[in-house]
Structures are given as structure tokens and as C-alpha cells.
Protein 1
Amino acid sequence: MGKKPVILVADEDRRQAEQLQELFPDTLRVLWAQTTRQALDALQNEGNICLVLCDLNLNGGTDGFVPLEAVRARRAGIPVVITTSSASIDACKQAMRRGAWDFLVKPIVPEQLRALVEQAVPDALQTRWVDDFVFPGVHSRSPLMQSVYRILRRVAPTDLSVLIEGESGTGKELTARALHENSRRKDGPFCPINCAGLAETLLES
């Protein structure tokens, strides 16, 4: 794999980053971002990020959602954990709706941090590096999903047409995007179309 996987901690307080580095000195590298701008720069320039811990009250507001949305838009396979000093049901709901992997209230004790990383990082590593196949936004170790991954790896490099079936919300578009990102056309645009939203005559033409 080469370089160590990186955990990005976006927080005005450096203690969280230092604590993580002490917990995983030999296996992970911890990158600290004190501002939203620094966090976005790290996401753009650092290729080995496998987990992001972001304080909701970054820059004194709710800027913690900014790195979260950047990850969801550009590097969706990375788990993002939102942290905060005050428990808020509304903030928790909003974070989960926006795609946060978890929502934690400070202070986060070392045992909680260790458990979090041990649970989140293997999924992130699997998503980004197993067989060089990128399956953004979907994490699973179940045998059924592993069989889906194997099929996707086989068909992605081909010119076959692929029919993806499933109920609403099961990840059909994510699957299509993964196929595109691993195909020979990955440098071209990916254009999902909601056929159900088109008029019958327009769809036919």
C-alpha cells in the first residue's frame, strides 16, 4: 500500500489529533486542520485519507458540514465523523442526513476513539484499495455484497451493457457510478438520468 493511511482531524483544538496519533503511532498518520480551509486543502492534496473527524463548530459556526459535503461530493468512500461539544438532536439528524458516518459528543475518551477507528478504517481501506476497485459510499463485509463487488470488478473493464435492478434507495446510482469510475470511460462525464421523471414520448425519442 505504500504510505500510511491518514486520519484527518478538523478541529480548532489539537488535542484530538494528538490523542489519535498516540493511539496509533505505527499504523496511521494523523493530519490536523485548524480551519475549514485547511481541511479542504488536505482533502484535495492528501490521497491516503481514510477517515475524517470534523468538529461541527469549526470556525465558530457550523462549518463542520463543509468538509463533510466536500467528501460526499468528491471522495464519498471516506467515512466522516462529526464531533461536537454539545449534544443536539437536530444537529445529529442533519449530520446523518448529509451522509456522516457517525456523530459523537465530546469529550471523546481514548477507548471510544480506538473503537471508532478500528471499526471505520478497515471499511475505508477496503472501499478504496481492495483490488484497486473504488466503490464510493458503500461499506459492507457481508458475503452477498462481496459477491456484488466481484461481479462489478469483472464487468467494469468491459463494454457490456449492465442492467442494475433494486428498490428505491438501495444504491443503484452508486453502483452505476462505481462501474463508470472503473471503466475505460472514467475520464468522461457520468450522466445519471431519472427516466421516471421524463415524459413517455421524450424517453422514447
Protein 2
Amino acid sequence: MSKLRLENVSYKYEKSKNFVLKDISFEFEKGNIYAIIGKSGAGKTTLLSLLSGLTKPTSGKIFLDEEDTKNKDMYSYRSQDVGVVFQSFNLLPKLTAVENVILSMDVSGRKFGNKKEIAMELLNKVGLDEDEAKRRILKLSGGQQQRVAIARALSYGPEIILADEPTGNLDGETQDDIMEIFRKLAKDENKCVIIVTHSPEVTEKADVVYELKKNDSGKNGTRMKK
């Protein structure tokens, strides 16, 4: 059964005649890495915004565990069901790595035991040691900041991880390290990992590739099985 499913989803901006996305029907299951690809302007970022609950579709439906998300509390959906990893990290620079993760736990509204201990364990899981975890964000490299961003997205236990160009600002070796983290999340922890990417290397490591493209009737998507 799909964890997340789009049924004939279309989106256009208010007062615009042109659709950014048109009749998209994609399914996402736990245990897989999905790559969303397409040329610039194909609607990849818009699709991620729809999946994360930040934007509502103009038409069509989005289902979480076969429940229409329009019936859900979207704040709860965004802060508990999905974790988002941004290309620009979106971390708070005046806080340390561990403080950024703890803040995300606070915002989720879920109850935790020792938040600092849990945050440190998450940071260790993504490859940061105790000294790095206690550094302020601007004292960390780009690769280290991306690891913090992943730990933050995992902090409240979402089963769906959404990542927007998570390796776009990283060198090849660090990109491989980040993709290995995503692989373990999907294969070892049975999470649904959805990555918007331009990278052929990231696409190659995905289990399923969805391509967004434009045709004569508007924009829609195609599933490309590996």
C-alpha cells in the first residue's frame, strides 16, 4: 500500500491560465528512494511544496495512508508526518547543531524523553561527533550542515522524508555520504524518501524515478522504473 499518493493533481497560480503541474498521479511507498527529475520550470519545487503540505492542489487529491490530506490538520501533517530537507539547509545560524534539532522537536508538539540525548544520537547517526554537534552552524562545513538538516528532519520521527536538491551544494564525496544516509533511512528504517534532484548520480541511486515534463496539453509526469 502506498504511503503517499497523488491522484490527478494539478496546480496553477491564482489568476494564471497556465498550469505548473497537470494531472499528476504518483505513488510513493515506504522502503524506497524516489527521485523527482525534470528540466528547470517543470514544477519540481511546486510538487515538493504540495507533498509537504505547504501548498494545496488546484484540483486532484493527495492521500496519506489512503486518507485524503484535505481532512487532516495540515500543521500536524507538516510537523509530524513529513520531514523536509532544504537545499539551503534553513538552519538557525546562532544556534548549535544540537540546538537546531531540539528546536525542531519542540515545534512538532510531540512528547519526548531527554531531548538533548535524542538529538545527539540523531546527529551521531548522520555522522557528526559530539564536538561538531556542539558547534554553531556557521562553524560547520556545507556537508556537516546538510547532516544537521537531515537530523532535524528526522527529529520527530516522520515516515516520509522530502529533500530538495540535498546534494546540490556538495562535492562528490560528500554527496555519496549524504546519499548513503538516505539509503539507510529507506532500506534499514523503512522510510519513504523523496528527492528532487538535477544530479544524475542521485538519480542513479534511486529505486524509482519520476520525470516531470511538459506536453501539448500542459505539464505532467512519467514514472521511469529502474
Protein 3
Amino acid sequence: MEFSELIKKRLTTLNYTNKKVSNEDMNQIIESAIIAPSAKNRQPWRFYILTDKQKNYIADKMENWINNTGLVTTIKRSANLIRQVGNCVLIYSNKWSSDNIDRIKNPQKLLDGKDIENMVIMHDYYFDRIKADTLSVGAAVENMILKATELGIDTTWLCDVLFIDDVINEYLDLKDKELICGVAFGYRNQNPIRKGRYKKEYLIVGEENERKKLCR
């Protein structure tokens, strides 16, 4: 399958059968993630393949999550999806220290050049590690999703797991890892709907002459 055809074929599936993806196909999907590009070759991604028992536990916790945000969420829909899909993988990164992140919020010593240790932490945890490692994990997830599409496997990129990331991490005993997202892998129960995309004219910013070259 040509790459241009592959990326157009990929759609987010919201209704699945409970058919499992074969171990051989899941192995190919994970291997595709491992060869993704990563900042400074840190390869921060870690993959947790959930058992049925774990999927159901997490789905129950998501369904019973008390929404104190005042926002409309899709967490219950995601919970149902996790329960019904054949396979679900959680993607982690190395743990980011909240203590170190808090230290960079007061930059005065940095500006005065008096806190060398904090300058290193600022670079490592903000300018470098957090943003770059998240982007690296995103590249790995994209590889997984496109490989699954090539194999005829449907996918859903799951971010609603982050509403209960502390609950999930405690349950799986992964307190030293940062939960980034989940991905569902399985076979559709009904055809997904193709959603609209913004036009290039809206998305490309910069010099007018350069924009016109790409937006003809």
C-alpha cells in the first residue's frame, strides 16, 4: 500500500468487536514504534499491553470518575471502547519530577545566573525533556497506528485515560513512569466516520509569499 493511500485510509474507530489482534501482528506494531525517531535518541517510550482484567478495571474506574472540571468529556465513551476492544496498549515515558518542574517557575535566580543547578534542571525538564520526549512518543504512536492500518487493524488514540492516570499508575505499579496516552487496536463493529480537516490556507502561517506558494 502506498504511503499516501495509507494515511488517507486511517480513521478513528469508535465501535469494535471483541476480536483479538494476533500476537504476530501486535509484535509488528510494537516493532514499528521502536524504530520511530526520538529526540537525542532517548527512545523514551514504554508500552504496557493490558490484559482483559486490566482493561475492565480501568474502564470501570473511568466510568465512575467524578467530573469536577466543569467540562464536557468523552471519558465514558472511551471507557466503553476500552472494554469492548480486543487489545489496548498504554504508552508511557520516563517520569517527570514535579519538584523539578516547580523549581523552574521562579526564574529570578536563573536570570541572575546564581542557580546553576536550576539552570540545568530548567533545560532538562522544560526546554528539552518534557516537550521533546512527548513529541518522540507521539512519533512512536503514529508509527503504531499506521502499521496497524497497513495490517487491516482499526485503531483509536486514547487520551481520556489521563483523567485517571494516577489511579492507573498505582494499579499497574508504574509510579516511576509518565502515562502519555493509550491506543486501542481491534476490528470495527461499524464503519468510522471521516471527519473534516482544516484547509491549508488556515493552517499555514508565515510570510504571505511563502504561504501562497503552498496554498495554490
Protein 4
Amino acid sequence: MAHWLVKTEPDAFSIADLKRLGRTSWDGVRNYQARNFMRDDMQHGDWVLVYHSNAKPPGVVGLAEVVRTAYADHTAWDPASKYFDELSSPQDPRWYMVDVGFVEVFPQMVPLDELRHHGEPGGVLEGMPVTGKSRLSVQPVTPDQFDAIVAMAGGKKRARKRRSLPAGVQPSKVAKPAVAQPPRPRAR
């Protein structure tokens, strides 16, 4: 089982939208490295940390699970879609998506500043792309990083049934995010 972090803009599609829908396709990813992670590495049952980007503050807000492995992203073939790509076709798809299912909204958001604090050299999140300047919308997460973030958020799910916070990690003091407005077209 692998662990991932996916970014979404909450005014386009939030964890509250995922909770309401139960499951959705994670479409519109137009970065080759992110596509390769989804196409080649994401497997059914993998845990997915949901990160609200372009928010104040940005941070990890909940948990999802991969419920369908990669398949061609049909939005690339629709000229009316903002994700249209004239070089992609059903016979030769360029872009892929996975389906994710809702697991939980975390009791506490883990803001980017806190992730960066624990991402400093020697920290439990050291080397995690989101703590640097990565704009990648789909990122791998190690089991230890996953456990630490779920623990900081007060989440119920654990990668390896860890009951306590890793050494040096304190629970987040940020309140749970507000419920978002109805969904608008996604922008990832």
C-alpha cells in the first residue's frame, strides 16, 4: 500500500464536496509527473491525504482512498472542457485519472506552516515535496509522513495502527475547516 497527497482548490472542489459525493474521479491533472504517479503507481486501497491549496491557510484537511486505478481522462477529448488536449485521443490517451472515495474530514487541519516546521532537517516530514516549493498536485508520501500528518490532524485512520504522535510532533491547533459552498468546476 502506498500513500499520497493530492492538492485541490477548495473553492473548486473541497473535502466537503468529496464527503457529499462519496467518490469522484480525480480528473484534470495536466502535469506529466503527477500523471505518471496516478497512471503507474496509484493502486486500489492506497491512502490519499487531501490538501486544500490556494486557501487561507493551505493545508491537509482530510483523507480519501483510491477506489479505482488509473484510466484515461476523457476530459482531454472534450473541446468544451478547460482540460481539453488536442494531442490526446481515446486511441492514444495522454492523460489519466483515478477515482477516490471519501474516508474522513480531519478534526483539525494541518496547515502548511506546520508541515514545513516538521519538514525541516531531522523532522518527521523532511523531504516531503509539499514542505518545499513543489507545485505538484499528486505527490508520494512515506508511511511515516502519513502517520505523522494523520496524528497531527487527530484523524482516525492510521497506516500502521500507530496510537501516539511521533517524537517531536504536536497536534495542530488550527480549527477544522468550514464547510465549502456547492462545487464549481474543478481546477487542479
